[in-house]
Design a protein that fits this description.
Layout lengths: L9 H30 L20 H5 L11 E4 L2 E4 L15 H5 L12 E3 L2 E3 L4 E4 L2 E7 L2 E4 L8 H10 L3 E3 L10 H7 L8 H4 L3 E2 L13 E2 H4 L16 H17 L10 H7 L12 H10 L24 E5 L2 E4 L24 E3 L3 H11 L2 E8 L5 E6 L15 E15 L5 E8 L11 E5 L11 E3 L6 H12 L1
Parallel strand pairs: 9-13, 15-18
Antiparallel strand pairs: 1-2, 3-4, 5-6, 6-7, 8-15, 10-16, 11-12, 13-19, 14-16, 14-19, 16-17, 17-18
């Protein structure tokens, strides 16, 4: 019989066991903390291995002896220098679960397929990685399953194809600067004219004095009657400021025509966006009546003097003010914001207009006004298909009918009508149209312009049409003539 430990050796054995117990407790605590630290980014972490973790001979959850409900970061065992988990969070097909989770915790006959990522155009994505398809973001959920947003895009290829198949009299195309934007973003950032108040909509309409024998031409283009005095279409970018761009565009043409070419300013939309701030919202929308009121009372400088700061909705402070100088005229209080005011092409002259007047909605009244006095400003309702316009005579199509409401959106816009015409169709029918300049840049539509059905108030384009006179006196023309000779 072996003798037992002596009483003298018992304290030493107890002390050694106590030390071993403390060391084991310390290692367990550190391991638990390490698990917690590594678990905090679990949902965003890539797979432990490219195709998911696999170990056919492993029995990790079984060795742990239990599986945890809910997400439990302590429910883990060592795995190939890392940790794998045995909690119910693994049901989301995350790639860091133990290989025997399904057989042991879910009583599956065999493990599910490996946890691959997702493939898109010959590229592999790990779970939680994303890519953008036009305006929608797609997220890899694992097992080749993508979760993609379903927002209607501004460039809608399905709608584009439906329009081009439908023989509506115009063609649709992809305007590259719209790619990646949702339809909601297009309505919010590419329009920007607030519909006038009832009191403005009820202002008296001016009817042109035309006898019964007056014959208007079938085709008219303001640029042909006044060469060099009609300005090119503008580009508002993602600034919802069509109220400022269309006002500046019409005023530029009208002042050029009424001064007989002595003054040909391209007026500054930025001057309006930054300085016409009373009850206006800059690149987030504005009203036409308040824009014309500012042009009458304060005036604008040229676009060269006060160029566009940016084509987005960032608010820019006003950097150009004017003061009265007698007889209703005004002068700038400082140099041009562009810092090139020493050149006579960058003069800080202030240009003003008379109060605007509203025309009747009769197409002949609008035609005669354009032919005699120059381009006019018009409101219109923009629908989802108008963004896709490429060429032809536009009319709103029923191609989106039957789609959910988010696919059928509209908003108020303002444009410059520069002329009209008729087009003979293959069936022998003549189709009447307006010719108008948009403010979406020269690559959109027909060189930045478009044609739209005339005489039927298509998209409300004949419902609110405005004309104006430039405030031009003999002293203005003499001053400009002397100024340019210098």
């Amino acid at each position: 019989m072996k003798p037992g430990p002596s009483l003298r050796t018992l304290p030493s054995l107890l002390l050694l066991q106590l030390l071993l117990l403390l060391l084991l407790l310390l290692l367990t605590t550190q391991g638990s903390l390490a698990v917690r630290r590594g678990r905090t980014r679990r949902e965003l972490a890539p797979a432990l291995h490219l195709w998911g973790i696999r170990d056919d001979g492993g029995s990790y959850c079984q060795r742990l002896g239990f599986c945890c409900q809910d997400r439990n970061d302590d429910c883990a065992v060592p795995y190939r220098g890392s940790m794998c988990y045995c909690d119910i969070f693994c049901n989301r097909m995350v790639p860091d679960c133990c290989p025997d989770y399904w057989t042991y915790c879910q009583n599956a006959e065999k493990d599910p397929p490996v946890y691959p990522g997702c493939q898109h155009e010959d590229q592999m994505y790990h779970p939680s990685e994303t890519y953008k398809e036009n305006c929608n973001q797609c997220t890899c959920l694992g097992n080749s399953y993508w979760d993609c947003e379903q927002e209607p895009c501004l460039v809608n290829t399905e709608l584009m194809n439906a329009i081009n198949r439908g023989n509506y009299g115009w063609r649709a195309g992809n305007h590259s600067s719209f790619w990646g934007m949702t339809l909601e973003e297009g309505i919010r950032h590419r329009l920007g004219t607030i519909r006038p108040s009832p009191s403005v909509m009820n202002m008296n309409k001016m009817h042109m004095n035309m006898g019964p024998n007056v014959v208007l031409p079938r085709n008219f283009d303001a640029a042909q009657k006044w060469p060099g005095l009609i300005h090119e279409p503008l580009d508002q970018g993602n600034c919802a400021g069509s109220w400022a761009f269309s006002t500046a565009a019409v005023a530029s043409d009208r002042i050029s025509i009424h001064s007989k070419g002595h003054m040909t300013p391209s007026l500054s939309p930025q001057n309006l966006l930054s300085c016409n701030t009373r009850h206006q919202q800059g690149c987030n929308g504005g009203r036409l009546d308040r824009a014309w009121s500012f042009l009458r009372r304060r005036g604008l400088v040229s676009d060269k003097c006060y160029p566009l700061a940016s084509q987005n909705s960032i608010a820019e402070p006003c950097r150009m003010y004017s003061r009265p100088m007698g007889r209703g005229k005004r002068q700038a209080t400082g140099p041009c914001p562009n810092n090139f005011h020493h050149s006579n092409d960058y003069s800080n002259d202030i240009y003003q207009s008379t109060p605007p007047y509203r025309l009747s909605s009769n197409e002949k009244d609008i035609m005669k006004e354009i032919m005699e006095n120059g381009p006019v400003q018009a409101l219109m309702e923009v629908h989802e298909d108008f963004f896709l316009y490429k060429d032809g005579i536009y009319r709103h199509t029923p191609a989106s009918n039957g789609k959910p409401p988010q696919f059928r959106r509209q908003g108020t816009h303002s444009v410059k009508i520069t002329g009209w015409g008729e087009e003979l169709q293959p069936n022998g029918r003549r189709v009447k149209f307006w010719r108008a300049a948009n403010s979406w840049g020269p690559t959109w539509g027909e060189g930045g312009s478009f044609r739209i059905l005339r005489g039927c108030n298509e998209c409300d384009i004949e419902s609110f049409v405005v004309g104006v006179w430039g405030r031009v006196g003999s002293e203005d023309m003499n001053h400009r003539r002397y100024y340019h000779r210098k």
